């Protein structure tokens, strides 16, 4: 059976909504700004600025009033990541036409991508708790769990099918798409709302990534703009904030509803490396690529576009290119590579690394773009390979 | 602390959490459930009132179905 993308939504540093996001990409905008968390935080980041739930709901005012009222009531006291998830999912829901031609709520599922999504909210409650434990809001018990995203979305959209979170660190977005596709293939539901949730990190978590050597840190002679992924001057990932949502649906349901198809999920694969550390595995990445291509019934020469992880870490980028070479073989130089949604050569990556929702936002503009058929500003493996191999580092 | 101050704190926080409630409906003889507050909102009203009035009341003192008048009296005893 065919699994179809019928709805897309995105909220990130360069766009509230797919149209806004796509326009920013066309203009070559970067969301990266200096010192978004102050002078003690990471030197660069791409943050969602100026988001309010009220503003997001106003932007969706053409949706039915009862749906917007439920969104407002469920979200007004919720942590920011949940509010952003509601706003982003509303866009996907609307684009899928599920407000016009609804499905039975029991035939719709929710998969939320990400884990440890509300740590900044938890840290923000510490002052109340320290003053007097009795002043800690009871709602903390719900909001501190990632499942709060699932419950809240269930209430807003009247969804009664299966619902769960999928945690796989920066692979969460892709894993959520895979799990949703499996629910549809098994016939458990007719549609699945996927949300790649905003990971709102604490200062402590950001510093840990710096101390681990994974995130770009302050250093003497630091450029005013960070180097893009795969560039020889890259110094680690730039933290970004973002959220994306997809509606996946069975083709039969799409036909019944007369819904627009944005893209198909042709195939997928995922695998572990028998390794608890963060160091990537060329063999593991290549194996997943080969299995995904085979699952789709394709050959390497059919691949025209690769949405890379492209985090900008020294070892990660080198390993990813090597894995592409192994996975695609002699077709290695054929596809266009996309790192961090936008170009990896002409502009810095636009939205940076989004942790839990990584992979999801890139699906939104790409599915839109695949309809409008305009070329992406990106690079082929051939053009970035030399600079990357020049920075090969041990371990 | 006088009872009116406590009642006003409850009323203020009910409206902050659920602004759709007509203010005139918030009366001493109704319960928070009567006003449409869910369990999470009811617990939050109590916590916010305690924090704003700098009072600490043991959780076991509060029972489901308490009227606002009862809540005022329970909180007053710990001021």
Share of β-strand residues of chain A:
5-15%
Strand content of chain B: under 5%
Query: How many domains comprise the coordinates of chain A?
Result: 1
Total helices of chain A: the number is 15
Report the radius of gyration of chain B as a whole number of Å: 11 Å
Distance between the termini of chain B: 6 Å
CATH fold name of chain B, please? Non-ribosomal Peptide Synthetase Peptidyl Carrier Protein, Chain A
CATH homologous superfamily assignment of chain A: Thiolase/Chalcone synthase
Reading the helices and strands of chain A in chain order gives EEHEEHHHEHHHHEHEHEEHEHEHEHEH
Description of the molecule:
The complex is a heterodimer of chains A (395) and B (79). By secondary structure, chain A is of the alpha/beta class. Chain A has helices spanning 18-27, 53-59, 65-75, 80-95, 119-124, 126-131, 140-143, 147-157, 172-185, 203-212, 251-257, 282-295, 314-328, 360-372, 381-389; strands spanning 3-12, 15-16, 33-34, 44-46, 108-113, 163-166, 191-196, 239-240, 242-250, 263-265, 305-308, 336-339, 379-380. Chain A has a single domain, classed as Thiolase/Chalcone synthase (Peroxisomal Thiolase, Chain A, domain 1). In chain A, the strands form three sheets. In chain A, strands 1, 2, 5, 6, 7, 9 and 10 form a seven-stranded mixed β-sheet that branches. The model of chain A is unreliable at 341-350, 365-378 and 385-395 (pLDDT under 50). Chain B is an all-alpha fold. Chain B has a single domain (3-77), classed as Non-ribosomal Peptide Synthetase Peptidyl Carrier Protein, Chain A (Orthogonal Bundle). Chain B is built from three helices and no strands. Chain B has helices spanning 3-17, 39-53, 68-77. In chain B, helix 1 packs across helix 2 (39-53) and helix 1 (3-17) crosses helix 3. The N and C termini of chain B lie close together (6 Å). The model of chain B has no long low-confidence stretch (mean pLDDT 94).
